[in-house]
Amino acid sequence: MQHVDGNAIAGPLAEFFAFDVTTAVARCNGCGSVAELARAMVYTSPAGSVLRCASCEQVLATLVESDDRAWIGFSGVSAIEVRRR
Amino acid sequence: MSDASTATATSATSEPAPALAAMPRAGWHVATVVATRQETAKAARLELDVDGWPGNAAGQHLDLRLTAPDGYTVTRSYSIASSGPGTRVVLAVDKLPDGEVSPFLVDEVRVGDRLEVHGPLGAFFVWRPVDRGAVRAAGDGAGGAASALRARPVQLIAGGSGIVPLFAMATAHAEARDLTPFRMLYSVRTPDDLFFAEELMALAAASDVFRLDLVYTRRTPDGWPNLAGRVTRAALAAAVLPATERPIVYVCGSTGFVERVASWLIELGHDARDIRTERFGGI
């Protein structure tokens, strides 16, 4: 399966968050690398989207949507930094 | 949080993405098609008037949703070729042979049609003109350092329809009369496959600070000095701003193109944090 960038799920995530989560800087639980979620690798299938760390490929986050709800996991992220200004 | 601790916390990113307060909130909007034209043999340019659109930065994208009479919906992302305030948005859509949405947008959409769009999206793959007033006001403090970063030269690298968000950046650069050095390397199959051909040539002809380098992968124009062929590492090294000038590099194209180019850029000494990519899968 071919991946794209974290940029690609800015739209789906914007449905649920008050800001563009892809610009937030996240720390990977697997290798400790710190990067914007926009730099992660996104694998999308009909079942949902998986974000993987661009450095170690650990799963950072998952997004699964149905008609009436969504499941958003950040299982591989230990912290995110959001710029206020 | 003090300025000093902010600077430390964002040290992983050479040029932080805009703060959340700086970006308009994305939302779903109804777009009316106000103009269409053929861009290439298999691509179309669509101009939309989007009800309630808050404006967008150069490099952002939108999601476009089509709904069938039976309620089946399909959503695809498209880069925006335009930027700035106002409700007009320009897209350039390449028809994918197996696509569900692009053949409709290229072959079927007519002026007056209405489409659902979600955006503006993505605050990471964007470029903004330098705010010269802010540079002067910031002086030598922390803000001055941030402004200096924003004035770093820019290298744009496009593969095929990956030109769309980079064209928005080049246009924004020209319209702002921004003096930041800008270079664009555009890899395209043949002269007939160029998007925004006239506009790009005009930008390059009119500006001392924008330079356009073209690579043709399948067929060149008559009298072209180079053979047709993919961008090589040597060609990349010759065309792009050297790592010593610390350019911000934006790369957009198919996943294979972007990964090839990004890995060569790192071998050529560019810092991974200075390279921003937008892969659109495919091919």
Question: How does this structure look, described?
Answer:
- The complex is a heterodimer of chains A (85) and B (283).
- With 85 residues, chain A is mainly β.
- Chain A has one helix at residues 10-14; strands at 4-5, 25-28, 34-36, 41-45, 48-52, 59-65, 70-73, 77-81.
- In chain A, the strands form two sheets. In chain A, strands 1-4-5-6-7 form a five-stranded antiparallel sheet, with no helix packed on it. Chain A has a three-stranded antiparallel sheet with strand order 3-2-8, with no helix packed on it.
- Chain A is globular.
- Chain B contains eight helices and eleven strands.
- The interface between A and B is medium-sized, with 28 and 35 residues.
| Fraction of helical residues of chain B | 25-40%
Number of helical regions of chain A: 1
Tell me what portion of residues of chain A adopts beta-strand conformation: 35-45%
Rg of chain B computed from alpha carbons, rounded to a whole number of angstroms: 19 Å
Q: Measure the end-to-end span of chain B.
A: 46 Å
**Rg of chain A, Cα atoms, Å:** 12 Å
Largest beta sheet: strand ordering of chain B:
4-3-6-1-2-5
> How would you state the average pLDDT of chain B, rounded?
89
SSE ordering of chain A: EHEEEEEEE
Question: What's the mean pLDDT score of chain A?
Answer: 93
Give the overall form of chain A.
globular
> What is the element string of chain B, with H for helices and E for strands?
HEEEEEHEHHEHEHEHEHE
* Multimeric organization: heterodimer
